[in-house]
Amino acid sequence: MQLHATALLALSLWAPAAMAGTIERLETAHANGRYTVSFEVVLDAPRGRVWQIMTDYERLPRVSKIITESRILKRTDANRHRVGVTLEACVLIFCKTVKRVVDIEARPQTEITVTDDPAFSNFSYAVERWRVAAEDARTRLNYTAELVPEFFIPPLIGPPVVKYFLRREIRLTALEVEALAKHE
Predict the structure, then answer these.
(1) Alpha-carbon distance 36 to 127, whole Å?
(2) pLDDT digits (tens, 9 = 90+) for 135-180
(3) pLDDT of residue 156
(4) Mean pLDDT in residue range 79-108
(5) Full domain range(s) for residue 43
(6) Letter string b/e over residues 131-148, b meaning 16 or more CB atoms within 10 A of that residue's CB
(7) Which helix (H) or strand (E) element contains residue 50?
(8) Phi, psi at residue 120, to the nearest 5°?
(9) pTM for the model
(10) More confident residue, 86 or 24
(11) Which site in 125, 135, 161, 163 is 20 to 30 Å from 91, CA atoms measured?
């Protein structure tokens, strides 16, 4: 999800066998305002289709309901883009609009690195890395991120609530990518 920005917690889930949209691992940590996140999910869709969907930066809102806008601001070459993304996330009664301007560098069909420009984002620091691997007819996504939000997340209730939110969003996004891969 481009709202990798909400990936802010600590939890580890292991599934005995890969199934469609299975979150095999989800780990998060928080220290001194910095959040680290990593997860692995296996999608029931071929890598080529997943890659097309993940790199269709103008159409990211179709992948996740929390992405309200995405647009290419600059294309350096086929594998490097500057993208503006707006996210609207609600957890319980708290809603937050998050603006991001990110530089995306893709190594075709294997890796995507996303780096926020802090001058135009709600993060003073954010670097995300996606690894995309084919597993027969499935795709394994491995995600890691370090994030420093410029907005307040309550320290006592924030991480547990965001953990629930993150788990739900990863699952919903995985299902949406699978559906798009099968029907487009």
Answers:
(1) 10
(2) 999 999 999 999 898 887 766 666 666 667 777 888 888 889 999 9
(3) 65
(4) 92
(5) 3-183
(6) ebeeeeebbbbbbbbebe
(7) helix 47-54
(8) -130, 15
(9) 0.83
(10) 86
(11) 125
Strand intervals (E) in 60-117: 67-77, 80-91, 94-107, 111-116
Which amino acid is it at 116?
A: D
Question: Could you give the CA distance from residue 56 to residue 71 in angstroms, rounded to a whole number?
Answer: 10
- Chain-centroid distance of CA 129 in Å reads 9
Locus of tokens 């997860």: 39
DSSP, collapsed to helix, strand or coil, labels residue 155 as coil
Query: What's the confidence (pLDDT) of residue 160?
Result: 66
The residues, ordered by sequence, that sit 6+ positions from 125 with a Cβ below 8 Å of its Cβ are 34, 116, 118, 146, 147, 148
Strand order in 111-116's β-sheet?
22-31, 34-43, 138-149, 123-135, 111-116, 94-107, 80-91, 67-77
Domains: count for the chain: 1
How many CA atoms lie within 13 Å of 177's alpha carbon, on the beta-carbon side? 32
Q: For residue 15, what pLDDT band results from cuts at 50, 70 and 90?
A: very low
Report the alpha-carbon distance of residue 37 to residue 39 in Å, rounded. 7
- CA angle 114/120/125 to nearest 5° reads 50
